[in-house]
Amino acid sequence: MNKTQTILIALLILCIAFFVFWQKMSFSKEVLKIEIIGPEKASVGEEIEYIVKFKNNGTIRLENPELIFEFPEGSIIDGGRIKRKTSEELQGDIYPGQERTVSFKTIFLGKENDVKTVKAIISFQPKDLKTRNETMTTFTTILGQVSINFSLDVPPETISGKAFSFRINYSSSVNYPLKDISFMIQYPNGFEFLYSQPKGMENTQWDLPVLNEAQSGRIEISGILSGEPQEQKVFKAQMGIWQDGKFVILKDSTKSIGVSSPNLYIMQKINNSYNYVASVGDQLHYEIFFRNLNENPVTDLVIIARLEGTSLDFNSIKTLDGKSQPGDNSIIWEPQNIPSLQFLESGQEGKVEFWVDVKKDWTMKTLADKNPTIKNKIMINTSRQEFLTKIETALSGRQNVYFEDKYFDNSGPHPLEAYKKTYFTVEWIANNTHNDIGEAVMKTVLPDNVVYENKIWPEGVDLVFDEATRELVWNIGTIDAGSGSLKQSKICGFQLSVTPQTTEQDIILLGSAQISGLDQWADKNLTVKTDIVYGETNR
Prior knowledge:
5% of the residues lie in helices and 53% in strands. It is mainly beta and 539 residues long. The chain has 4 domains: 25-143, Immunoglobulin-like; 148-260, Immunoglobulins (Immunoglobulin-like), CATH 2.60.40; 264-390, Immunoglobulin-like (Sandwich); 395-535, Immunoglobulin-like (Sandwich). The strands form 10 sheets. The chain has a 5-stranded mixed beta sheet with strand order 2-9-8-4-6, with no helix packed on it.
């Protein structure tokens, strides 16, 4: 045998050995069959169950199996979108011929016709092999009709430079409470935001903690749209849920609005202000101004002002030249007795006026009355304009003094006696009517003869006493609308003591306390004061 033949035989032996080794170490992934069984179609809010079925079709034991099941974005499931099952949870090694199943449940969020794909991966180690193998499969579910109504209610046309209102309407028929809902809107160029009800975040986002089945609501937005005549402006709105920091869209709506040139410029003042904020018990003096923007005169104008708002006393309406029936919410001015309505030159301006009262005893009946407004819809022939006036909340504070035990043990004489110490409890109460109050603070300066005993109720309340200035400050924070009526009042208690040097004159236990905060709807700082509290003596 020559050298060449020897080399060829050696190579052949190596090839055979490698083939035998490769055959031993390799493993067909098809031996483990895996499939996902689930619905091909599903509705938003419907609970879905996926069953992962896997079977060992080979002759080798599959050791230490592990399963990873991955849900797509927009899945509601505890503990994250990726689920892992250990070998123990899968009942250990999979013997030849064995079949097992594992189930996973979720609820999908998304738009109609969204494609949701789940994935299952099983990794394992064939007996006597050191390497791990894995088998993967997927399953696709298509979302059907979303049981949520969502629409933009936008007028077909508005006048350039004129304020108008539109609405976002929503309701849910999903048999599941949808949490962390947000409504987003994208405005067209030329839109100037004025206000919204309720108030949103950066005027483009409104959050709803939970939307229950059969629940509905609306968001009303007012603004001014400017543009060229016949130009179409597009508003885009989305409704969705925040999940893992991402916004999952459930519904969207797009509407266009036409822009036209105004024939008349319409503006109103209330109590000599273009941006007046009303209060309960106010008398409102309305002045309606109108100017002819045409090149030609206009004649025979009729003005109708229609008021809306449960806070108004329609029986109090007074007008000089207009007509109004008692209890009616409309006032009409006709051209017979008003020259500017009979004939208005190009560029000329006219004015009408009226008075109406805000009810003195108007209070919230439900939380739906929060953030109240007064709306005035003005129509002058074919021209229309709408104005919204906000009503500020009524913030109030009260100081109650208790000589009997209240929150703390009190002692000492009452009525007060000279040179004898008396302990007493002060209860501060903060109430609020129509709008949420933020940055609320209540404070007073303690009289020199009164001692702060450093006892506070409830525990953890933010009450601070400055010994140098003798100022006592309660940092309340937020006072919800309806506090004291529909909701519990904000309450803080603390203990003081006093040792009178004389009882020949009134003893001041507490000076007037001041409570202040920001009306978050009216965007107005409010401040009110309480009465002084005197101690009773035997004189």
